[in-house]
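B., you asked whether I could sanity-check this one before it goes into the benchmark set. Here's the sequence:
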Amino acid sequence: MTTPAPLDVWGEIPAGTQWPGPETLVLLNRDLRPEADRSRLSRFRDDRWDLNPAIFEDHYPSTTLNFAAIPAELRLTAKFYVWQLLNHTEYRKVRGARGQRSAVVTIARAFANGLQSVLAWFAAQGVTQFRQVTQDLLDNYLVALRDDEVPLASGYRQITEVRRLWGYRDILPPLMRLPDAPPWAGEDTQELLSGRHVHRQNRTRRIGEPTMQMLLLWAIRFIEDFSEDILAAHAERLTLHANTTEGRRRAGTNRQPRYRPGELRPKLIAYLEDLRERGEALPGTRTVSGDLVVNWRHLAAVLNCAESAKHTTAARLVDESGLPISEFSYVGPRVSGRLDGQPWRSDRIHYDEPPRLARLLSTACFIIISYLSGARVGEVLNLRRGCITHHADTGLWLMEGLYFKGAADEDGSKIPEGELRHDPWVVVEIVARAVGVLERLHPSPLLFPVQIEVYLKRPPGRKRLGEARQDKDINKDLAAFVTWVNTECERRGRADLIPDDGRGSLKGSRFRRTLAWFIRRRPRGLIAASIQYGHAHTRMLQGYAGTYESGFPDEYAFEDWLHRLECLADDEQALNDGEHVSGPAADTYRYRVNAASREFGGRVLTKERHARDLLGNTLLQIHHGEGMTCVLNPATAACQLRGDADDPQVTPDHDDCRPKCVNLARTDRDIEYVKRRAAELAEIVADPLAPPVRHEREQHELNRLRSIIEAHEQGATGR
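And here's what the prediction gave me:
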């Protein structure tokens, strides 16, 4: 614990700067969560500062600042400086930093990932006050970063913290101020680090196609086929657990129900008759010696009586019933869900299984909601009950929730409580069903609480106030989901296991990137039932995911950019190899391919949003379809466009392609597809049993395709 020095030690405090004393609250000028215990808030004198009361995102991990990690000679100075970062209400613009007044979590990350390293190096050079830091010392610091081969990202963060310390110098007393001149004369960080650049491309690795398909398939199976069985078993287990000694203790009462003489007997008779009618056995368990005996603990929970009831005369009815004893104690009815026409499990759910199955079901819901909404992980984890509505007039399913990234007040400072989305997510029905399952699974106001079982209480002394699962919890849940599925597949000899995509562990943050890839690359691929990625694209861009505050259009634009560059390289190579192009837009196609190759070849994007801007370039408006290529000019397109004509992400609707559109071109690759389609139609036309109406329709289409092929080949021979 450190004690503040008198004010006269530091020098004159600038006007407008508050100066803390030993008992001053660490979060003096920050909004706090309503449930935060004000009597336990951290004070300046503490060496560990608890920041959790000012963190409103329910999924964030516990966040504290440990000043014991700062060298002793700079510890008190660091505390004064960081206290100002937390509480001074006026923001100082710092190169390399984003936003206005720094959020509490941002300060915590800067402390751990940059400031600690900077101050440790300063202390090693004999610095005891910030005013001792000279330009020569800062130059030596750069040399040390290079000599120690500090990773580039870490170097950037540490340099940003030096700049931040300088940026806040005017609110600090003289002894705490860096020199007047900007560090390193204001040079760009990339120049300071030997001219190296940070390529801030989207480094989030998408989930491989086979992995994502099987992951989604099994998640849908949990919702559509297994959920009713799991929900019923989980609900019954919660009821039975509440009737146990442990359950009563957790509820705060150890009183056991007492039956007057003769009251237990009719309940027991009714229970035994019910078992007999359903052809079921008594709940059983194995003793230490291996003997199979009646599980009286389970039976007492069913009858809501004390376990000592097994010693009563009424209990003799159990021994005299003649019913067999099961190896297990079951909950819920016999399973009704089917997997390939057979029950998805061979027996009923055991008493100890519902917690695990409930967690798997919750994970399946997360996969569906996160993947098919395009929402960020944190936004999904902060969803609450009642977030889904159905718009009867439009038929749209809408999902409302808070957003934190980009939520700012009129001064540009972060709104810690987050804001409700102005435009909700527009989702497909399976997402609404997943939310409905979660609302039945537990009573928590959050859809993804830390604990699903209501009897599990908050651990004593836990500082984190948020009740939602953390990112790391979801990542563990995803791994457990894959393990369960693959174990079941191996046990049953099934081939539809979830393969490892070889790109690292599954993380919730990978779903957005993967969805953008699938929508761009597999527009006709099935998501669920008859839902296609093209349909999801249309639905999502009608609502929240289509607003730029969501970030999803940037994800999609980045995938679109990569896809178009790949296609451009293939097109250029084909032209160089002598590929023939026909159709009214053939000349425009050849011009765009050659010009775009010169314009964009080898270009590197530093930010995802740049992809969205570049996609509006006319040279990139080449869209390959089935048997044709659209050289898009929105002003002359005959189809219904996806998006507005002035939107850089406008694309043609290939399902609405018009044969006489002036934007059409056909490459040799397109003609190969047309030939295959013509061969299929020729077989239908040659079938004497084909209905006349169908014969006439297919003959007309066959003639059209043959004309396209003939025109293309005539042009090729006339070159």
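One thing to flag: The mean pLDDT is 83. Otherwise nothing jumped out at me.
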